[in-house]
Please model this.
Amino acid sequence: MTAVSTPFVAPSTAGAQARLPLVTVRDLRVRYAPDAPLVLDGVDLDLHPGEMVALLGASGSGKSTLMKTLTGFAPISGGTARVGGFDLNNLRRGQLRELRSNVGQVFQQFNLIGRLSVLTNVLAGSLYGAGPLNLLGTFRSEDRKRALELLDRVGIAHKADQEARTLSGGQQQRVAIARALMQRPKLILADEPVASLDPKMSRTVLELLRSIAHQEGIPVLVSLHVLPLALAHSDRIVGLRHGELVVQGATSQLDAAQLAVVYDVDDEEEED
Ligand SMILES: Nc1ncnc2c1ncn2[C@@H]1O[C@H](COP(=O)(O)OP(=O)(O)OP(=O)(O)O)[C@@H](O)[C@H]1O
Ligand SMILES: [Mg+2]
Model:
């Protein structure tokens, strides 16, 4: 990505950009096949720089699909979605890779390469969008320095040389976050990043993500299943039910009773 060509950066309007949403979704509809039912149905959503947004919804409500749409992994059937200057409805040739290289992704299962060292896993983040991962072992010294700094930031610099598979889940998730930061992301999407972690580590990881949102000034969208975690660790909450956004507001203005609208009996029966 170059500073001049990227739709993420417009130097002349940098001050004003801080107040503009980075992500703008309007009347978004998604179905996975022409005759399949809508999985997202009329979703409107803005994500602003510097905010940690919790995405709630029962299993199957469309949380992962919404995140996939923002990185071009799910088809848009109607409405619009913009990420930075990228128009997801009309991506030009080569823009998909550029978009994805600017979006840090964090997953429930960490998605590290277990036999490689922690440091190499983080360095892999710097290769995102650079083509096949055949450059392993040829990292620049400044990248190694940055990777170590990021490991220090997430609290596991002392594990840098260990194989990733030997770390605990909480440690692996922090490596995954360091890897995402290595991309210098303009947006972070974390899909159930704490679903495999114990309550204490869940809080640690969510506060880490929130501090990244605030300090880096980027939006962080985090899907969660545990309502109290959303209430304790987000700036804003949005809730999906059956593909529709049924609740949206500042976390400080919401309580568990208001958020119960996200879940209903039918959804609970679908839970695995
Ligand atoms: N690739 C796909 N092809 C067809 N249908 C899909 C695909 N991915 C998801 N779906 C369907 O879309 C709906 C929403 O799925 P999605 O994974 O977005 O839900 P979710 O809210 O992330 O659920 P969970 O909490 O279980 O992760 C489900 O009915 C699912 O079966
Ligand atoms: Mg999901």
Observations:
- The chain has two domains: 22-102+185-272, 112-184.
